[in-house]
């Protein structure tokens, strides 16, 4: 009877903890798509909390597993909200870059073409410098095309990274 009495509280705690772990796993899964891409640090913290709950469960700490797992859905919701906010911020940044970078690249392209055909180059610039500028411009143009493709496919993070490369170039 003593053994059975000791087993009942453990068994009672295991079921709710298992249910909470299942809910936590579902919450992590629902936050994964955008969380991993858009707010990876926050998603990693969410995953760590779920893993901690699972570890507690596996070691027999059902009460600790239950408490930890019950907090995971709220953290998943926060990750999803942060991802939505970050995406909105990135979309605004994309609009700004989309409005300014093509004109900037076109202006640079015009100037490089003028220099390429000039009979005399400005002081401090030689043919090798002009060729280097042409190569950099070709790279920037290709990166901008890749950014547009990434944006069109919904990969705003890659699009912004490529647009940043163009701007830096």
Attribute tags:
169 residues, mainly alpha, 5 helices, single chain
Structure annotation, total helices:
5
Radius of gyration: 27 Å
Order of helices and strands: HHHHH
- The coarse silhouette is rod-shaped
Roughly what fraction of the amino acids lie in strands?
Answer: under 5%
- Contiguous runs where pLDDT drops below 50 for at least 5 residues: 1-12
Q: Please state the average pLDDT score.
A: 89
Counted beta strands: 0
Q: Helicity range of the residues? A: over 70%
The computed structural class is mainly alpha
Distance between the termini: 77 Å
Tell me about the largest β-sheet.
Answer: none
List the helices and strands and how they pair.
Blueprint: H1 2-38, H2 40-58, H3 62-117, H4 127-152, H5 156-168
Helix pairs in contact: 1-2, 1-3, 2-3, 3-4, 3-5, 4-5
Explain what you see.
The protein has 169 residues and is mainly α. It contains five helices and no strands. The chain has helices at 2-38, 40-58, 62-117, 127-152, 156-168. Helix 2 runs antiparallel to helix 3 (62-117) and helix 3 (62-117) runs parallel beside helix 5. It is rod-shaped and about 85 Å long.
Can you summarize this structure?
The chain is mostly helical and 169 residues long. The protein is built from 5 helices and no strands.
